[in-house]
Amino acid sequence: MIIYLHGFRSAPASIKAQALQHHMSERGLANAFWCEQLPVSAREAIALIEAQISRARRDSRAVPPTLVGSSLGGYYATWLAEQHGLKAVVVNPAVIAPLSLESYIGRQDNLYTGEYFDFTQAHIDELRAIDVPAITHPERYWLLAETGDEVLDYRDAVSKYAGARQTVLPGGDHGFSRWTDYLDEILRFAELT
Predict the structure, then answer these.
(1) Residues of 83-99 as b/e, b for ≥16 C-beta within 10 angstroms?
(2) Rounded-to-integer distance, Cα 108 and Cα 72, Å
(3) Which helix (H) or strand (E) holds 169?
(4) Could you tell me the domains of the chain?
(5) What pLDDT digit, counting tens, does each position of 65-109 carry?
(6) What span, in angstroms and rounded, lies between the C-alpha atoms of 174 and 76?
(7) How far apart are the C-alpha atoms of 101 and 40, rounded to whole Å?
(8) Is 18 within 8 Å of 10 (Cβ atoms)?
(9) Tens of pLDDT, residues 169-184
(10) Residue 91 contacts by C-beta under 8 Å, 6 or more apart in sequence?
(11) C-alpha to C-alpha distance for 173 and 67, rounded to whole angstroms
(12) Strand order, beta sheet including 141-146
């Protein structure tokens, strides 16, 4: 199973989530994809994801779920991979989320649903509480980053995931413009093909 974690102000309707879901459906893997709207609260988001991890482990005892996280979803995926011994693909991850998101404190809108929400210092504190200072099993991670990311400095991710598999591509953007080129390889990494 792949548990896809979208980024800040994003949703299951994001381009990457939809492309991966469609790709998996075409290969008969529709039931092996999970992506839900994550709460703004990191504490609530982690609880929702951990409930899905538990269900996935019960339903498919052979292969543990793989986390695929984009931006803030990559931050969550890292914490969850460390806590639950899972593999994670992190895509232009927000490795210093509490710092990089501080400038967003205030009223925000979801880019896909149009819904408004208040992002507060309490949300930053929740992110700080799940910071992973250093990954413990680099072999469980695969970093996908583009140097043209206009939101986050890709070098922070390269440093954070030192020793892990890394695909760092020149150019691109925060949305990871070459996403569809890597979908088959993500399925192999997740041991689904």
Answers:
(1) ebebbbbbbbbbbbbbe
(2) 15
(3) strand 165-169
(4) 2-189 (3.40.50.1820)
(5) 999 999 999 999 999 999 999 999 999 999 999 999 999 999 999
(6) 17
(7) 12
(8) no
(9) 999 999 999 999 999 9
(10) 16, 68, 69, 70, 71, 73, 74, 144, 145, 176, 179
(11) 21
(12) 33-34, 2-5, 66-70, 87-91, 141-146, 165-169
Smallest Cα–Cα separation from 78: which of 100, 93, 63? 93
Percent of the chain topping pLDDT 90: 96
SS3 (DSSP) at 146: strand
Q: Over the stretch 153-164, which tens digit does the pLDDT of each residue have? A: 999 999 999 999
What pLDDT, on the 0 to 100 scale, is given for residue 44? 98
**Cβ neighbours of residue 103 closer than 8 Å, sequence gap 6 or more:** none
- Residue 4: what are its φ and ψ, rounded to 5°? -95, 130
Residue 39 has a pLDDT of 97
Give yes or no for residue 21 having a pLDDT over 90. Answer: yes
Structure-block tokens of residue 116: 């408004």
Query: Regarding predicted confidence, which is higher, 167 or 57?
Result: 167
Please write the tens of the pLDDT for every residue from 131-148: 999 999 999 999 999 999
SS percent in the chain: helix, strand, coil, step 5: 45, 20, 40
Q: Are 12 and 35 a contacting pair, CB within 8 Å?
A: yes
Count of residues for the chain? 193
